[in-house]
Amino acid sequence: MTARVKGRAGRYRPATVALTLVSTASSVAFLVSCTTDSPSGGSSSFSPRATPPDTASFSGSPPSTLPSAAASALASASAAASSAAAAASSFEASVSAEVTRANQQAEAELKNVQGKGNATSDVALRGKATAQTNGLRAVLVSITNSTDQQASYAVQVDFTDSSGKVVESRFVGAPDLDPGKSAQSLVVSRLPADQNLTPSIAKAQRY
Q1: What CA–CA distance (Å, rounded) separates 177 from 155?
Q2: Percent of the chain with pLDDT over 70
């Protein structure tokens, strides 16, 4: 709106004061929006572009560029590459020293046994699914004393390949088994579980 003011001569004329005030206010508003208060109480100029940090003032080592997912995958691949022999050794380390001694005694006892021994009918084998043995090939050996006297048993389990060749032999002992009583032992192969192997009772001796 245009205002009219009375001059010295008594006439009215359009006033430009309002426009001047609006223009001045706009300029002040623009200056205020483009300045920020500094911590010291002064003002600093506003910059629309981000300023990169001064890396010379940084300390310490930069973070590793290897993603955690890649490190996890590498660890998994390393674990999967473990051999069946190492897994079998770990299993054997978990069994009791008494069982280990019995198996070692059985191996020594069978060295002098000719043929299949005198107790194959007292021994039975049952395969275990690899899902139940953490991927290991294992056979459950059951020994039953069919006599009326206490006896000890020594058993040899052979693993044969598709051609019938014996590729591994394992030994199980059951000392001082009472008449009619049974004992069970788990025989674990050291060979990879993906091989087509067949377990069988090679020898069984009662003594």
Answers
A1: 14
A2: 54
- Which residues, in sequence order, are CB contacts of 156 under 8 Å at separation 6+? 106, 107, 110, 169, 170, 171, 201, 202, 203, 204
CB 184 within 8 A of CB 143: yes
Given pLDDT bands bounded at 50, 70 and 90, which one contains residue 79? low
Phi and psi, residue 91, nearest 5°: -65, -45
Does the domain spanning 87-206 belong to CATH 2.60.40.3230? yes
Q: Distance between CA 119 and CA 194 in Å, rounded?
A: 31
> For residues 21 and 3, is the Cβ–Cβ distance under 8 A?
no
Radius of gyration of the chain (CA): 45
DSSP secondary structure letter of residue 8:
T
Contacts of 38 (CB under 8 A, 6+ apart): 44
Q: What is the pLDDT of residues 1-38, one digit of tens each?
A: 544 544 444 444 444 444 343 444 444 443 344 444 44
Mark out the alpha helices in the chain (DSSP H runs): 17-33, 68-80, 84-94, 97-110
pTM of this structure? 0.55
Domain boundaries along the sequence of the chain: 1-38, 87-206
